[in-house]
Write a structure and sequence with these properties.
By secondary structure, the protein is mainly α. It is built from 21 helices and no strands.
């Protein structure tokens, strides 16, 4: 059996399976985080080797090509950045055992990679559930926080419902087509009217599960409470890695031979995109909590991504991946600022907008990078988010999606209000809460993580050509 193409998945499987043994031998938080980080780095550096595979590995279960391995690389890079933030976030004085968090982190990343590379609905479901169960544990990890326990319980119940839809949909697809292979189902045609109805119903149920994980309207109701209750590193994980994994399998499926969006499906996707863009930005206007704003903002950004998905052709495909990259690094950076300002031992994170007041006066460097992240989310130059939105608009113009582009512009203007309001609050004279926040020391790993996120946002925002050229290789 040739497993060269599957090397990243194999390494992550060994990592997730071996970490409990490391904990059993020596309970050391620093050691567990170091082993987890080295495992993620090994999986990341093995991607060029996997790309040189001459024969497919586990072709009935997984697809390891340039597209899937590109998404795996993005998942691993995001996971490494979030792990660095999590390492410093869980301080020794936190009233819990810290060593189990990297175990959940590694298991969730394994599930995300399996989901992103799935070729069968069996591996799709296993990857989805592995990732989801790990995220539930990470959300509720600070059990001394009532909000975290509530968020974990909500995510458990709602994700269980979405998983039931996915599983029922998979059963209908297998009954209608006689196969669980994604490419086979996409390329096949129904033998009769009953089979066609089952295919449509099965795909619709799986789409409901995907909509929940992507938090698009009307499956977005869980977002604000989960983002607020989850610790900041977990919030970044849910906002970024879970969405990358689901978008990876979605984009890979769209690129399969025989895949095309019907007129009714395009209309439904257009409606979801419009509602997500408007609802996300309008609801964010009424919030005074930074995590809630980021949650509602993520809903709007997934609406923008749907515009690029609807824009068929190579320009639309590259625009989707470019926007995913911009969204990922910006969200990690925004949650990273919350993480470095917060104490894990406190009953909640520093996530009130009023607590950021005067940050330009007390922490000018941190306020500067936070401003960069907000400008990127708002789509204002010179941040990477501006190029990402322009790329999506170019794809929309190319395919004449005028109504979606109009809504995108209007919702983007609405978003400016709450993004710029946060910047305005940071520039005010510091309050007592801000002075209390300003005395926190920022660790060297956190400084490195924030710098590694902010530099590409600025660099590729000014000169995006190298990133665009790299992303185009995924579709060659």
């Amino acid at each position: 059996m040739n497993l060269q193409g599957a090397v990243p998945l194999v390494i992550l499987t060994i990592l997730a399976g071996g970490l409990p043994a490391v904990v059993a031998i020596r309970r050391s938080y620093r050691l567990i985080c170091a082993v987890t980080g080295l495992g993620l780095l090994a999986a990341l550096f093995s991607i060029p080797y996997a790309l040189r595979a001459t024969s497919p590995a586990l072709p009935e279960l997984f697809t390891f090509n340039a597209l899937s391995l590109g998404f795996i690389g993005l998942i691993l890079i995001s996971a490494l950045l979030i792990l660095v933030l999590a390492y410093s976030y869980w301080q020794p004085e936190t009233p819990l055992y810290r060593e189990e968090f990297p175990l959940l982190f590694a298991a969730g990343t394994l599930g995300a990679v399996a989901l992103a590379s799935a070729a069968s609905f069996i591996t799709l479901f296993l990857g989805l559930e592995t990732m989801t169960l790990a995220m539930i544990g990470m959300i509720a990890y600070p059990h001394f926080r009532p909000a975290a326990e509530e968020a974990g319980l909500k995510y458990l119940v709602l994700s269980g419902m979405s998983s039931a839809f996915v599983l029922f949909g998979i059963g209908l697809l297998e009954l209608a087509s006689g196969s669980l292979n994604i490419a086979h189902i996409v390329a096949s045609s129904a033998a009769d009217a009953a089979s066609q109805q089952m295919l449509v119903a099965g795909l619709a149920m799986i789409a409901i599960g995907a909509g929940f994980k992507l938090s698009v309207v009307p499956f977005h109701i869980w977002v604000p409470d989960v983002y607020v209750g989850a610790p900041a590193p977990t919030g970044a994980y849910v906002a970024v890695i879970a969405k990358i994994a689901v978008l990876a399998i979605l984009i890979r499926t769209i690129n399969l031979p025989g895949a095309n969006l019907s007129a009714s499906m395009s209309t439904l996707t257009t409606a979801i995109a419009i509602l997500s863009m408007l609802s996300g930005n309008l609801l964010a206007l009424m919030q005074d909590n930074l995590k809630r704003i980021l949650g509602y903002s993520s809903i709007a950004h997934l609406g923008y991504l749907l515009v690029a998905i609807l824009a068929a052709g190579s320009i639309g495909q590259v625009a989707v991946v470019f926007y995913i990259v911009a969204y990922a690094v910006t969200m990690i950076g925004a949650f990273g600022v919350i993480a470095v300002l917060s104490h894990a031992s406190d009953v909640r994170d520093v996530d009130k907008i009023t607590e950021l007041r005067g940050l330009f006066w007390t922490r000018p460097a941190l306020a500067g990078v936070m401003t960069l992240f907000l400008l990127s989310l708002a789509g204002i130059p010179p941040a990477l988010g501006f190029i990402a939105k322009m790329y999506i608009m170019a794809a929309g113009v190319h395919t004449q999606l005028w109504s979606l582009l109009a809504v995108m512009v209007i919702s983007g203007v609405i978003g400016l209000f709450y993004y710029l309001n946060i910047i305005l609050v940071m520039s005010m004279k510091p309050s007592d809460d801000a002075m209390a926040v300003s005395i926190l020391a920022i660790s060297i790993p956190n400084r490195l993580a924030i710098a590694m996120v902010s530099l590409p946002i600025l660099a590729f925002g000014v000169a995006p050509s190298p990133l665009i050229a790299l992303l185009k290789l995924m579709f060659d």
